[in-house]
């Protein structure tokens, strides 16, 4: 890595030149750096807003899942069969499904080797369990903090190798060039040095690089109701601005989560059958609201229990009092009625109890047997939770919430984006030398087995590192050539930053604008959708983006990073809401983890608002993928057929020859 200082239109700017810059310090970003170093490319660095930020390090569930090939027992499985499971979720390219299946064991064992405590039996078999949308028992877990353990162990590898980490650097621009008769390529990054914002000569930093591995996570900041950690905002808008194609942006997952401490309330949190209560904003008028909608207390208990297995909201699980009716009723209380909803683990659901003791005979066979096998047919929900999963109780205690002594406020929240940036089987995007990995990459389809995201992040970052090490080893551009190509782009962003800084007459502060962005998405682009709301929201986001500088007033230069985040989030939100509107206009119905309003559809339950009227997608568009390019504040969409799972020549000698000649790195146009 080489360091220079240049002057560009009166601004002194540091320039670091290197082969590969990795943006993001989650599990995917650290793995990309670790793999690159191991494959021989050591001229690399990690750029991060903050090492302790992001989803990988700060989120989880009662038993956070890692999905991989079956590695224990006598149950048959194969790479192709796992690929078929991923592919059959709909709107997923078969070649990506095959890669994610093929590298799942390699990626899993790498994590095992560096110390992630996945459990195995005394014979060394890594046993599994069945997760949602999983026909086998491919899931494994290191407990509630699986992704945190992954991130920490991968960081240890990076530090042991002495890989440079630029901590406190926020990327604000992806720099590109389009050589004559060639495709656009990424050649650098512009970042804010958050550590030295007050010093104009050190405020902006350039990275002149041959490759960019982009591991910035999902678009968390566009939502108000979110289980993403508050430290995670995402940076998809910068990629859209640079010409990177989006894919399946309509497909996100939503589920019930706690509000004060953001955490997924799946698994045992539901299976212990807590009491759902609703109150007015001032805490008055407490009531168990589920009772009003179910015609039988046993059905209510079963729906709550199955919410543990079937945690993501799913419109296919609404009718006949299925588990996702719970999400609908929580949304009805919180958003439409403006009340607060809590889980109470201190008392049993009143409707299903006698003198405070739960009547377990009301349970269906599946729920009863599960609790019986877990020796949990007794006591209060908190007692059952302690019996079945004490770490789930401890987790909240460690974050200032005692489930034995207080209610737990909840909401239906955004959790994960199955879509994202588009890339090929080596995780390279349409902008050459730019590799989106982790959640920012949109490799998933409509449905995916729980835990697939952690596998995809490890597989994708490994593939990007393999390709860079094999094909993109060249030195970065000469600094003079680099500046001549990116000077205009750099000054446009610096001018934006200085305009934010100079505005003293804006009408709103950065946090007020952030709140507006989040509330807009939660109202108009979350799990309850309509074409009208999506179109309105997209237009509002576009107008707010156009007037952002004039509307923003910074209290100090230290709010400049938040202003740039708002800029990114508004581009992201505009593109996402436009994608939702485009899907519905193409005839798209309710699927995945969202409900689309259909005036010809059915209401989930009598008495609910018209906004919940819906019909299930009958397979329309599940064999297609929506792709989008953002340019000059406009979105251009195209729908393409999914690629089938490849049937490759697996004759050993033929594969060996192609491998030795590096023909495996050829990509389809």
Give structural notes.
The chain is an alpha+beta fold. Helices cover 35% and strands 19% of the residues. The strands form six sheets. Strands 1, 2, 3, 6, 7, 8, 9 and 19 form an eight-stranded mixed β-sheet that branches. The protein has a five-stranded antiparallel β-sheet with strand order 12-11-17-14-13. Strand 1 (2-8) and strand 2 form a beta hairpin. The relative contact order is 0.15.
Strand content: 15-25%
Q: Judging from the principal axes of the Cα atoms, what is the shape? A: globular
Count of beta strands: 23
| Helix content bin | 25-40%
Radius of gyration, Cα only, in angstroms?
25 Å
Unreliable runs, pLDDT <50, ≥5 residues? none
- Tell me, rounded to a whole number, the average pLDDT: 95
In whole angstroms, the N-to-C terminal distance is 33 Å
Per DSSP, the total helix count is 19
Main β-sheet description: 8 strands, mixed
**Which structural class fits the helix and strand makeup?**
alpha+beta
